[in-house]
Amino acid sequence: MLEHFDALLLARIQFAFTVSFHFFFPAFSIGLASYLAVLEGLWLKTGKQVYLDLFKYWLKIFAIAFAMGVVSGIVMSYQFGTNWSVFSDVAGPVIGPLMAYEVLTAFFLEAGFLGVMLFGMNKVGRKLHYTATLMVAFGTFVSAFWILSVNSWMQTPVGHIIGENGQFLPGGSWWDIVFNPSFPYRLVHTVMAAYLTTAFVVGGVGAWHLLKERKDGSANPHARKMFSMAMWMAAIVTPVQIFAGDLHGLNTLEHQPAKVMAMEGHFDSHPEGAPLILFGIPDSEEKTVKYAIEIPKASSLILKHDLNAPMDGLDTIPDDEEPPVGMVFWSFRIMVGIGFAMLGIGLWSLYGRARKRLYDMPWLHRAAVLMAPSGFAAVLAGWITTEVGRQPYVIYGLLRTADAASPLDAPAVAASLLAFIIVYFTVFGIGVWYILRLMSKTPHSGEPDAMEGDSGPIRSAGITPGPTQNPGHDEPLPANKEDV
Length: 484
Fold this sequence. Notes:
Layout: H1 7-46, H2 49-82, H3 85-119, H4 126-155, E1 160-162, E2 168-170, H5 174-178, H6 183-216, H7 221-255, H8 257-264, E3 276-283, E4 288-295, H9 298-304, H10 325-354, H11 362-370, H12 374-388, E5 393-395, E6 399-400, H13 410-440
Antiparallel strand pairs: 1-2, 3-4, 5-6
Keywords: Cell membrane, Electron transport, Heme, Iron, Membrane, Metal-binding, Transmembrane, Transmembrane helix, Transport
GO molecular function, one term: oxidoreductase activity, acting on diphenols and related substances as donors, oxygen as acceptor
Protein name: Cytochrome D ubiquinol oxidase subunit I
């Protein structure tokens, strides 16, 4: 089997596999951290027990997702040294500090306040605990900020010079590197994708419990509340996300035209308006999209706001600089299709809300359950579009992927890839199973804290003191408890 794969392809598969696994967890935890901050803020403002119960319900899930995100992300750093040592050497002076800033700011911020957030509900004042929750939510955003800055610089490299030894060196202001041309668009698009991913998971879980409520005839205010909040998010944020995605596409057309050509399936140039190809089968050998279903001149209208605007095709790009059209073409359509499906769910929920039947629409609830994992599929499809569309470069236009890999033999890379596959599916598969198990439990009044028996440290010897103040850790904090 190894005879059919060279070391470069195996290294690319390995990084794609690990980053795909990793991406699922930040895409969920970024949005979930903000959702937890909203829930705790609403509890502090209104005093309603339902918000505190939901906060505790989702906090346990967040802790597991966050932990798996950290563990799965550490592995990728090592691959820079093992499989991509040339890239690390030549690009390290630029990307190294940015990734270090992510650790020194976001990771330390999250790690410092996560313990207070998880176990401090009955040990610190309400204001300090809410501050910890806000800091964790802010830390997830800061982490996304630095990582997306690195990725965006690789997509649109600016602000650097090439040293005598071939290294990329900062060439002036770091602000030019950090806020490179594609970064603001990618940051907004990715963070909102994370919020929508979380919203549809929360909405799917809420819909699942609403369907159970309908079956057994009970009433669950917790499921109703989370479903309502998720549907508001879907209805409001999805149109904004579609608009942001359009702006991101226009920016990509300006700086990475070959990627857009692959996304659109434009093998040929169109001097009098390019069609929008809805579906088809791209054939890179024959340079055509077979069985294409298209709307005449619509692509020119979308991308240049002019029906007759000329559009260049891949016939203007050397063959050895073309990205893999088939993969980019279909991943882009999967992402867009899921986006419009999310919009449909959001509009459907508005219709039900206007008729005061949001909690009495079983087909909407079934659709929401089916759409629960849709955000993960969309962010993965978007990542494939972005990264595969950049090929054959790892630093766009400057460093080819083939020139960035370590001088390794295929069996060495294959062995580590096989190990990753076994370990990832085992460890993270169990973690995902446990998360789904937690989600299957019905949220209820008096939801327990993240850790049972958190009245004091666990002792391995000696006398364990009995409960002193506030023994019922399931109950909300007393109203007269002083803030620390």
